[in-house]
Amino acid sequence: QVQLVESGGGLVQPGGSLRLACVASGFNLDNYAIGWFRQAPGKEREGVICISRSDDSTSNTESVKGRFTISRDNAKNTGYLQMDTLKPEDTAVYYCDMGGYRGQGTQVNVSL
Length: 112
Known about the structure:
This protein has no helices and eleven strands. By secondary structure, it is an all-beta fold. The chain is globular and about 40 Å long.
């Protein structure tokens, strides 16, 4: 059974950091790229950042450039999203996507 489980969300003040994790089970992460998406209330889902399956090259949306970093540990079947210098506009539910499968999301709130 394929399952993705995100964790690491929470409440953080502006300027703070969070590290999200996405653990995959039921398939081998080696064969898939990893993407992180987010959806804020009243807004459409947005692609945030992704990492390739082959050479670990990454791509990100402009709004998170220099602040968010994606990585993967295939041995642990886990993807990570390091978020630094967080801003209130980063508040959203964050989802990971691997091979078209998506987790339940983890809430990130950036507020004083």
